[in-house]
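TA notes, week 10

Several of you asked for a full example with nothing omitted. So below is the full record: C-alpha coordinates for the whole chain, then the designed sequence directly under it. When grading your own attempts, check the secondary structure regions first.
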Protein backbone atom coordinates (compact mmCIF):
# COMPACT_ATOMS: atom_id res chain seq x y z
CA UNK A 1 0.00 0.00 0.00
CA UNK A 2 1.04 3.58 -0.68
CA UNK A 3 0.09 5.97 2.10
CA UNK A 4 -0.09 9.69 1.32
CA UNK A 5 -0.06 12.28 4.09
CA UNK A 6 -0.19 16.05 4.01
CA UNK A 7 -0.22 16.62 7.77
CA UNK A 8 -2.51 19.14 9.39
CA UNK A 9 -2.25 21.70 6.62
CA UNK A 10 -3.49 21.28 3.06
CA UNK A 11 -1.54 20.18 0.02
CA UNK A 12 -4.22 19.67 -2.62
CA UNK A 13 -1.66 19.58 -5.44
CA UNK A 14 -0.07 16.45 -3.98
CA UNK A 15 -3.38 14.66 -3.35
CA UNK A 16 -4.58 15.54 -6.86
CA UNK A 17 -1.32 14.41 -8.48
CA UNK A 18 -1.58 10.99 -6.79
CA UNK A 19 -5.26 10.73 -7.71
CA UNK A 20 -4.45 11.41 -11.37
CA UNK A 21 -1.65 8.82 -11.39
CA UNK A 22 -4.05 6.20 -10.02
CA UNK A 23 -6.68 7.19 -12.58
CA UNK A 24 -4.16 6.91 -15.44
CA UNK A 25 -2.99 3.50 -14.19
CA UNK A 26 0.51 4.74 -13.40
CA UNK A 27 -0.02 3.73 -9.77
CA UNK A 28 -1.38 0.21 -9.52
CA UNK A 29 -0.83 -0.17 -5.77
CA UNK A 30 -3.58 0.35 -3.24
CA UNK A 31 -3.50 3.98 -2.06
CA UNK A 32 -4.89 5.58 1.08
CA UNK A 33 -4.42 9.19 2.15
CA UNK A 34 -4.64 11.61 5.01
CA UNK A 35 -5.71 14.88 3.34
CA UNK A 36 -5.79 17.32 6.25
CA UNK A 37 -7.91 20.41 5.67
CA UNK A 38 -7.57 20.24 1.90
CA UNK A 39 -10.38 21.02 -0.48
CA UNK A 40 -9.54 18.42 -3.12
CA UNK A 41 -11.30 15.09 -2.52
CA UNK A 42 -9.65 12.06 -4.16
CA UNK A 43 -11.85 10.03 -6.50
CA UNK A 44 -9.68 6.94 -6.85
CA UNK A 45 -8.68 6.02 -3.29
CA UNK A 46 -9.87 6.25 0.29
CA UNK A 47 -8.91 8.99 2.69
CA UNK A 48 -9.24 10.47 6.16
CA UNK A 49 -8.86 14.12 7.05
CA UNK A 50 -7.19 14.16 10.48
CA UNK A 51 -6.53 11.32 12.90
CA UNK A 52 -4.87 11.19 16.33
CA UNK A 53 -1.98 9.09 15.00
CA UNK A 54 -0.68 8.20 11.56
CA UNK A 55 1.42 5.34 12.92
CA UNK A 56 -1.08 2.57 11.97
CA UNK A 57 -1.06 3.84 8.37
CA UNK A 58 2.73 4.13 8.29
CA UNK A 59 3.06 0.54 9.51
CA UNK A 60 0.80 -0.80 6.73
CA UNK A 61 2.48 1.17 3.96
CA UNK A 62 5.20 -0.10 1.65
CA UNK A 63 5.82 3.49 0.52
CA UNK A 64 4.89 6.76 2.21
CA UNK A 65 4.43 9.91 0.17
CA UNK A 66 4.37 13.01 2.34
CA UNK A 67 4.69 16.73 2.46
CA UNK A 68 8.17 17.59 3.69
CA UNK A 69 7.29 18.51 7.25
CA UNK A 70 10.10 17.77 9.68
CA UNK A 71 7.89 15.78 12.07
CA UNK A 72 6.80 13.37 9.34
CA UNK A 73 10.33 13.07 8.01
CA UNK A 74 12.00 12.26 11.33
CA UNK A 75 9.20 9.97 12.50
CA UNK A 76 9.71 7.79 9.43
CA UNK A 77 13.44 7.91 8.71
CA UNK A 78 14.22 6.80 12.27
CA UNK A 79 12.34 3.60 11.43
CA UNK A 80 13.92 3.19 7.98
CA UNK A 81 10.65 3.48 6.09
CA UNK A 82 10.52 4.15 2.36
CA UNK A 83 9.60 7.81 2.25
CA UNK A 84 9.06 10.14 -0.69
CA UNK A 85 8.77 13.77 0.31
CA UNK A 86 7.32 16.52 -1.84
CA UNK A 87 7.98 20.09 -0.82
CA UNK A 88 4.96 22.37 -0.75
CA UNK A 89 5.83 25.36 -2.92
CA UNK A 90 2.79 27.23 -1.57
CA UNK A 91 4.52 27.75 1.77
CA UNK A 92 6.22 31.08 2.38
CA UNK A 93 9.85 29.99 2.43
CA UNK A 94 12.05 27.18 1.22
CA UNK A 95 12.80 25.59 4.60
CA UNK A 96 11.30 22.28 3.44
CA UNK A 97 13.65 22.24 0.45
CA UNK A 98 16.73 22.49 2.65
CA UNK A 99 15.72 19.59 4.88
CA UNK A 100 14.49 17.43 1.98
CA UNK A 101 17.69 18.01 0.01
CA UNK A 102 19.90 17.10 2.97
CA UNK A 103 17.96 13.92 3.77
CA UNK A 104 17.84 12.87 0.11
CA UNK A 105 21.55 13.50 -0.42
CA UNK A 106 22.35 11.37 2.63
CA UNK A 107 20.15 8.43 1.58
CA UNK A 108 17.36 8.70 4.14
CA UNK A 109 14.51 9.42 1.74
CA UNK A 110 13.61 10.34 -1.82
CA UNK A 111 12.94 14.00 -2.52
CA UNK A 112 10.49 14.56 -5.36
CA UNK A 113 11.20 18.16 -6.35
CA UNK A 114 8.43 18.33 -8.93
CA UNK A 115 5.03 16.62 -8.87
CA UNK A 116 5.38 15.85 -12.58
CA UNK A 117 8.15 13.43 -11.55
CA UNK A 118 6.15 11.67 -8.80
CA UNK A 119 5.57 8.51 -10.85
CA UNK A 120 9.34 8.16 -11.36
CA UNK A 121 9.95 8.72 -7.64
CA UNK A 122 7.51 5.89 -6.83
CA UNK A 123 9.32 3.51 -9.21
CA UNK A 124 12.62 4.50 -7.59
CA UNK A 125 11.17 4.00 -4.08
CA UNK A 126 10.21 0.41 -4.84
CA UNK A 127 13.89 -0.55 -5.15
CA UNK A 128 15.24 2.04 -2.67
CA UNK A 129 16.74 0.93 0.63
CA UNK A 130 16.79 3.93 2.95
CA UNK A 131 19.44 4.54 5.56
CA UNK A 132 18.05 4.48 9.07
CA UNK A 133 18.53 7.83 10.77
CA UNK A 134 20.24 7.63 14.14
CA UNK A 135 19.71 10.77 16.18
CA UNK A 136 22.58 12.00 18.29
CA UNK A 137 22.20 11.44 22.02
CA UNK A 138 20.87 14.45 23.90
CA UNK A 139 23.63 16.11 25.93
CA UNK A 140 22.23 19.56 26.63
CA UNK A 141 21.66 18.61 30.25
CA UNK A 142 25.42 18.12 30.65
CA UNK A 143 26.09 21.59 29.27
CA UNK A 144 23.55 23.10 31.66
CA UNK A 145 25.14 21.34 34.65
CA UNK A 146 28.58 22.53 33.56
CA UNK A 147 27.30 26.09 33.31
CA UNK A 148 25.66 25.94 36.75
CA UNK A 149 28.85 24.57 38.36
CA UNK A 150 30.96 27.30 36.74
CA UNK A 151 28.55 30.01 37.89
CA UNK A 152 28.58 28.73 41.46
CA UNK A 153 32.40 29.04 41.65
CA UNK A 154 32.27 32.79 41.07
Amino acid sequence: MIFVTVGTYKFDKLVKAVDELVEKGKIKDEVFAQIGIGEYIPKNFGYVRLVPSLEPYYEKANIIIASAGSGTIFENIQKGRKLIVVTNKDLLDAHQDQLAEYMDTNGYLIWCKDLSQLDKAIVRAKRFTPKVYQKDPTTIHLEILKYIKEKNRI
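The chain has a mean pLDDT of 93. Use that as a sanity check on your answer.
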